[in-house]
Here is the input.
Amino acid sequence: MLTVSNIYGHGFDSLQLARLERLGFSLRPQVSRYMGAQLCRFIDFEQGPCLELIEVEDERAYMEFIPEGMRPYCPGISLAVAQPELLKDYEHEFRHLQPYRLHVNYDGSVESPGPGWHYLNFGLPPVADTFIWLTGYDNPKPVREHISGQPNRVKGIAGMVFDLETDRLSELGQLVKSKRTGGPFEINGLNVWPRDMLAGALPGHDKLFPLRAIILRAEKLDYFAALSEQVRPCSFMGRPAVHFATNRYSWDLVITA
Here is the structure.
């Protein structure tokens, strides 16, 4: 079974991060650097995957890094397998998506194989303009210092909304072994909603990519009552919510109780 490990977006410079902190989010103390001059910060939750916030420090280095199947600056979703050995099954089953393998050591080196991340990327993306890949982790996994309790009482990610019709998400549904044939489906408890589920909840936008919004669940929305300059009230799936706009490269946040 695949699980969502993290969901990333670009365009999170110091001003964007400050806005998120004013919204009551605490960032993981550890800051990571990844190939392509990418500075990566994280928001962890009590349950489920984290959000990865990327700032590109050198555009030329980033453009030289872009792997096959990735559109520059598009958002991405890491799907984790239980053991790295399972990647070969997906590699065979989804060979029509032109899969290819990468390995990066936990210490960031690539010269000689050691404990690290095993990636299965796709030359043909399962979802348009969204980088979706599978990750297997060697043991022992690196120990990271996480912040899980968020001051704004957001508990975790409930799902994601794509500004795409249902049929354009069918390949992702097959990849995660969804048993649903229409409408939203789940990835180990996280919902994936197509365009028709937006139902006017989100305003018009200038997003460059179809991963439109990440839906977060909170204990209550009380924390956001005094933050009218940061968020706008809305509803999602018939429930009260607030909408936080990020930037044109990244998904927005919709927080519901």
Summary: The longest strand covers residues 154-162. The first helix runs from residue 14 to 22.
